[in-house]
Amino acid sequence: MEPELPDLMKEIDFIHDSLMPDPKNYHTWAYLNWLYSTFSNLPDARGGDRFSDMSWKAELEWCERMLNSNYRFIRSKTPEIHSTGIVTGKIQALSSDDENEGEVIGRGDGRNNSAWSWRWYLMISRKGAKPDTETELE
Questions:
Q1: Is the model's pTM score more than 0.85?
Q2: What is the pLDDT of residue 35?
Q3: Coil, strand or helix at 104
Q4: Which domain of life is it from (predicted)?
Q5: Per the domain annotation, does 15 fall within a domain?
Q6: Distance from C-alpha of 40 to C-alpha of 107, rounded to nearest angstrom
Q7: What CATH number is given to the structural domain containing 41?
Protein backbone atom coordinates (compact mmCIF):
# COMPACT_ATOMS: atom_id res chain seq x y z
CA MET A 1 0.00 0.00 0.00
CA GLU A 2 1.70 3.16 -1.20
CA PRO A 3 -0.93 5.89 -1.45
CA GLU A 4 -0.05 9.33 -2.71
CA LEU A 5 -1.02 12.54 -0.91
CA PRO A 6 -4.48 13.00 -2.55
CA ASP A 7 -5.56 9.51 -1.43
CA LEU A 8 -4.17 10.08 2.05
CA MET A 9 -6.01 13.40 2.29
CA LYS A 10 -9.30 11.67 1.42
CA GLU A 11 -8.66 9.21 4.25
CA ILE A 12 -7.74 12.03 6.64
CA ASP A 13 -10.97 13.89 5.73
CA PHE A 14 -12.86 10.67 6.46
CA ILE A 15 -11.13 10.35 9.84
CA HIS A 16 -11.88 13.98 10.70
CA ASP A 17 -15.55 13.44 9.79
CA SER A 18 -15.60 10.24 11.88
CA LEU A 19 -14.42 12.13 14.96
CA MET A 20 -17.31 14.61 14.86
CA PRO A 21 -19.96 12.41 16.53
CA ASP A 22 -17.46 11.13 19.13
CA PRO A 23 -14.42 13.45 19.36
CA LYS A 24 -12.87 11.33 22.12
CA ASN A 25 -12.88 8.05 20.18
CA TYR A 26 -9.43 6.72 21.06
CA HIS A 27 -9.41 4.16 18.26
CA THR A 28 -9.99 6.81 15.60
CA TRP A 29 -7.28 9.06 17.06
CA ALA A 30 -4.91 6.08 17.12
CA TYR A 31 -5.67 5.37 13.46
CA LEU A 32 -4.99 9.03 12.56
CA ASN A 33 -1.67 8.83 14.39
CA TRP A 34 -0.78 5.54 12.67
CA LEU A 35 -1.58 6.98 9.24
CA TYR A 36 0.56 10.09 9.70
CA SER A 37 3.38 8.19 11.43
CA THR A 38 3.52 5.46 8.81
CA PHE A 39 3.34 7.60 5.70
CA SER A 40 5.65 10.33 6.96
CA ASN A 41 8.44 7.93 7.88
CA LEU A 42 8.79 5.91 4.68
CA PRO A 43 12.34 5.42 3.43
CA ASP A 44 13.35 7.53 0.44
CA ALA A 45 13.33 4.41 -1.74
CA ARG A 46 9.57 4.14 -1.07
CA GLY A 47 8.83 7.82 -1.66
CA GLY A 48 9.73 9.29 1.73
CA ASP A 49 7.40 11.65 3.60
CA ARG A 50 4.03 11.67 1.83
CA PHE A 51 2.93 14.89 3.56
CA SER A 52 3.79 18.40 2.46
CA ASP A 53 4.49 21.23 4.88
CA MET A 54 1.06 22.57 3.94
CA SER A 55 -0.54 19.24 4.94
CA TRP A 56 1.14 19.35 8.36
CA LYS A 57 0.05 22.97 8.84
CA ALA A 58 -3.55 22.15 7.88
CA GLU A 59 -3.61 19.23 10.31
CA LEU A 60 -2.33 21.43 13.13
CA GLU A 61 -4.98 24.07 12.33
CA TRP A 62 -7.69 21.39 12.41
CA CYS A 63 -6.35 20.08 15.73
CA GLU A 64 -6.31 23.61 17.20
CA ARG A 65 -9.99 24.00 16.25
CA MET A 66 -10.76 20.64 17.88
CA LEU A 67 -9.32 22.10 21.10
CA ASN A 68 -10.99 25.52 20.81
CA SER A 69 -14.29 25.42 22.70
CA ASN A 70 -15.50 28.46 20.72
CA TYR A 71 -15.59 26.48 17.47
CA ARG A 72 -18.52 24.60 16.00
CA PHE A 73 -18.12 22.25 13.07
CA ILE A 74 -21.11 22.37 10.73
CA ARG A 75 -22.28 20.50 7.67
CA SER A 76 -23.24 23.14 5.13
CA LYS A 77 -26.78 23.27 3.76
CA THR A 78 -25.19 23.66 0.32
CA PRO A 79 -23.72 20.30 -0.70
CA GLU A 80 -20.35 20.11 -2.38
CA ILE A 81 -20.01 18.13 -5.58
CA HIS A 82 -16.61 16.47 -5.92
CA SER A 83 -14.94 15.76 -9.27
CA THR A 84 -15.99 12.14 -8.80
CA GLY A 85 -19.64 13.22 -8.95
CA ILE A 86 -20.23 12.34 -5.29
CA VAL A 87 -22.32 14.91 -3.45
CA THR A 88 -21.33 15.44 0.16
CA GLY A 89 -21.93 18.01 2.85
CA LYS A 90 -19.04 20.39 3.27
CA ILE A 91 -17.65 20.61 6.80
CA GLN A 92 -16.62 24.05 7.92
CA ALA A 93 -15.30 25.38 11.18
CA LEU A 94 -17.09 28.47 12.42
CA SER A 95 -16.52 30.61 15.45
CA SER A 96 -19.42 30.94 17.85
CA ASP A 97 -20.05 34.46 16.49
CA ASP A 98 -20.79 33.22 12.97
CA GLU A 99 -24.30 32.46 11.81
CA ASN A 100 -25.20 28.80 11.74
CA GLU A 101 -25.85 27.98 8.09
CA GLY A 102 -26.09 24.24 8.55
CA GLU A 103 -26.29 21.36 10.96
CA VAL A 104 -23.84 21.48 13.89
CA ILE A 105 -22.01 18.15 13.84
CA GLY A 106 -19.29 18.80 16.40
CA ARG A 107 -17.76 21.32 18.77
CA GLY A 108 -14.25 22.07 19.94
CA ASP A 109 -13.36 20.87 23.43
CA GLY A 110 -10.32 22.11 25.33
CA ARG A 111 -10.54 19.07 27.62
CA ASN A 112 -10.11 16.49 24.86
CA ASN A 113 -6.99 14.59 25.95
CA SER A 114 -6.79 12.80 22.60
CA ALA A 115 -6.65 16.10 20.72
CA TRP A 116 -3.99 17.41 23.13
CA SER A 117 -1.96 14.25 22.59
CA TRP A 118 -2.30 14.67 18.83
CA ARG A 119 -1.21 18.31 19.10
CA TRP A 120 1.88 17.16 21.05
CA TYR A 121 2.75 14.80 18.22
CA LEU A 122 2.28 17.51 15.58
CA MET A 123 4.21 20.20 17.47
CA ILE A 124 6.90 18.28 19.32
CA SER A 125 7.46 14.61 18.61
CA ARG A 126 6.90 14.09 14.88
CA LYS A 127 9.88 13.77 12.60
CA GLY A 128 10.75 17.22 11.28
CA ALA A 129 8.89 19.13 14.01
CA LYS A 130 10.60 22.32 15.08
CA PRO A 131 9.44 22.92 18.66
CA ASP A 132 9.12 26.56 19.70
CA THR A 133 9.49 26.42 23.48
CA GLU A 134 8.53 30.06 24.08
CA THR A 135 5.28 29.74 22.12
CA GLU A 136 4.41 26.47 23.84
CA LEU A 137 4.99 27.95 27.29
CA GLU A 138 2.86 30.96 26.40
A1: no
A2: 94
A3: strand
A4: Eukaryota
A5: yes
A6: 28
A7: 1.25.40.120
**Which amino acid, residue 18?**
S
Range of the domain at 117: 5-126
Strands 71-76 and 91-95: antiparallel
What is the percent of the chain where pLDDT is above 90? 44
Long-range pairs for 116-120 at CB < 8 Å and ≥24 separation? 116/67, 117/29, 118/29, 118/32, 118/33, 118/63, 118/66, 119/60, 119/63, 119/64, 119/67
Is 28 inside a domain boundary? yes
Please, which residues have CB within 8 angstroms of residue 109's CB and are 6 or more apart in sequence?
23, 24, 66, 67, 69, 115
Q: Is residue 132 part of a domain?
A: no
Strands 91-95, 102-107: pairing is: unpaired
